[in-house]
Write a structure and sequence with these properties.
tRNA processing, 4 helices, mainly alpha, ArchSynthase1/Queuine_TRR, TGT-like_sf, 66 residues, single chain
């Protein structure tokens, strides 16, 4: 992932924050999720504009399964 959270924090550190109940864990997870959803929305809009949404949908669906 190219979001600032994933670039600057390890998964182990974020997991540690969740395990000890730090509020920062929730903030980082929220920021990551918003970044991902924003990116996904941009890509979907781009696929729609290029009349290629069905391919985008199929590829995204497969990527999210595994």
């Amino acid at each position: 992932c190219s979001c600032p959270v994933c670039r600057n924090y390890t998964r182990a550190y974020i997991r540690h924050l969740f395990n000890v109940g730090e509020v920062l864990a929730l903030r980082l997870a929220s920021y990551h999720n918003l970044f991902y959803l924003n990116h996904l929305t941009k890509e979907a809009r781009k696929a729609i504009a290029e009349n290629n949404f069905s391919s985008f949908y199929s590829l995204t669906k497969e990527a999210l399964k595994g």
